[in-house]
Amino acid sequence: MSEEYGAQSMVGRLRRVVMRRPGEEMAAADSAAWHYAAPIDLDEARSVHDAFADALRAWDVEVLYHDEPLPGLADSTFVFDPALVTDRGAILLSMGKERRRGEEEPLARTLQACGVPIHGRLVGAARCEGGDTMWLDHDTLAVGRGFRTNAEGVKQLRELLASLGVTVLDYDLPYFSGPEACLHLLSLISPVDADLAVAFPPLMPTALWSELRRRGMRLLEVPEEEFRNTQATNVLAVAPRRCIMLDGSPVTRRLLEEADCEVVTFPGEPLSFKAEGGPTCLTRPVWRDSV
């Protein structure tokens, strides 16, 4: 594996990420069309985004920026979704949200400029977003099938990962709030260590829940109010049991701290709560240690 890229883990020490500061395209977005809860104030959004980046740097994570102009692509600050970075390079995904199509190749150019080669691309009718992917271990990827990821996307992703010795396990996601809302697999669970995750089991696929139990994964169940209102399940592990989450979920934070996790928070109101994307969504891990 290259010494500079490879992120086949959700919890290994995070060394390098790509981020994208909120841009004019987000400030100009029609809130109803983009399913935002309210218009984005650009100065406020950038301020909390910068605070998040500073929190990553404080834990020795190198932050690289994807700053290519992307007019009209309001969600492009959520760089987790258009690509997956493996030990052999990036796999470019294909956005299930139609308004987000077009983010993939610009992010590919940024990744290549950061030294990450392109291992493959989803093509044709395949759809898959990064938020529907979760590494269970270095050689096993869970993928959620829902409104953003389809069967053809899972098929092509499985084929691209086969040469790396990666097994893809796919699970059906629930309808929940319908096709316009953003319900990814990672909306329901965030691993914070190899044997620990925050999760909202009432909406999790039963087969995934069973697989996690088989693996000895302990789930910290977030309360429904914090799941619905403050994205309590969106937690970014910077290292095992060292994590960043949004303000406003005191019960989930207490559960994490009682499980010996170190927790840092940043405000969610100006950006994440309005646009349905928390700390995981705002980063594209480029380099993580294996666990």
Topology as H/E string? EHHHEEEHEEEHEEEHEHEEHEHE
Radius of gyration: 17 Å
**CATH class descriptor:** Alpha Beta
Q: Overall pLDDT, averaged? A: 96
Q: How large a portion of the residues is in β-strands, by DSSP E?
A: 15-25%
The secondary structure category is alpha/beta
Number of strands: 15
What separation lies between the terminal Cα atoms? 14 Å
What is the architecture at the second tier of CATH?
5-stranded Propeller
Count of DSSP helices? 9
Summed up:
The protein is α/β, with parallel strands linked by helices and 291 residues long. Helix content is 26%, strand content 24%.
Please, could you describe this protein's structure?
This protein has one domain: 5-stranded Propeller (L-arginine/glycine Amidinotransferase, Chain A). Helix content is 26%, strand content 24%. The protein is built from nine helices and 15 strands. The protein has helices at 24-27, 31-34, 42-58, 104-113, 151-162, 206-214, 224-230, 250-258, 272-275; strands at 14-19, 62-65, 83-86, 89-92, 118-121, 133-137, 140-145, 167-172, 189-193, 196-199, 218-221, 236-239, 242-246, 262-266, 284-288.
